[in-house]
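The records we work with from here on pair a chain with its fold. Here is one such record, which you should read through line by line:
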Amino acid sequence: MKYVNTLSAGLVAAAAFAVLPAAAEPAPRCIDVKDIASADSKDGKTMTFRLKNGMTTINTLKTACDSLRFGGFVWNTSPIGEVCANAQTFRTLTTGEICRLGDFSALVKTAAK
């Protein structure tokens, strides 16, 4: 009987862990450009980065970049090909506005569509 109770408790614990969301990874300092699947902004205040490994991070821009909502942008990447928090700038294609990244959020697994 003791074996059954221990087994039942183990199965309940395993089921509880199965429904918990996956832990987020720490916020990145820099992201290699090769790892970025897409980057876009709907509001000109944050930029969502979807990575090729299925993770997503959101960057809160240093200041609002209004023209980002209306078109694309071009990175001014470092020589080693990274975009880095609080240092990276980019230029919008519609107005030429120069914008700067702020802090990245923690990396989270992108939900399957």
In short: The longest strand covers residues 46-51. The mean pLDDT is 81. The CA atoms of residues 48 and 97 lie 19 Å apart. The beta strands are 30-32, 36-40, 46-51, 55-60, 73-75, 82-84, 89-92, 98-100, 108-109.
